[in-house]
Amino acid sequence: IAIIAILASILFPVFASARAKARQAACMSNLKQIGLALAMYAQDHDGELPYHLLTLDATPTYLSYLGALQPYVRNDNLFNCPQRRDIGYEGPADTTVAYAYNRDLNGMPRDQVEDASSVLAVMDGVQVSCSFTGGDTFRDTDGTGYTEDPNNGTSPNRVIFSRHNGGGDGVFLDGHCKWLKASQVRDLLNPQ
């Protein structure tokens, strides 16, 4: 029995680490698919990226990047990071949202972005207190920028999650995915 206990104490952390790596790989796959959906959307809409905003007219309407991308994805679970621990909120058709869209890209013509490989399009993140449906956004240099949540979602503020080994996954406008530390995300969103 002692030998089994020793083996279990050695192997359980290894198995837990392997499961976490598998969930991170699934998250990267989700983001890659979202990046492809963004490219297809832009191709079908004269090069413009989707909007994600609240209109300010007489009858306000919430325009969601999730709603715009749904025709290009087959599974709503694509918008849910497998590492997410009950943080997020319901989007269109009861889709749980775990990724934030760069709202600086709202309706922007894709070809106007000079260096698409350095522009973060969608990232692990959410505004925990958000009351809108349809996903969340992040934004650079607006004074309230999204920050890392060291408690992985228990902060009442807008957050970029460190869900995966102290960092988060993101897809860039050119379609490549990358794991980033929170400090790298801050540097990307708020260049000096």
From TrEMBL:
SUPFAM superfamilies: Pili subunits. It comes from marine sediment metagenome. This is DUF1559 domain-containing protein. Pfam families: SBP_bac_10 (PF07596). Residues 17-80 form the DUF1559 domain.
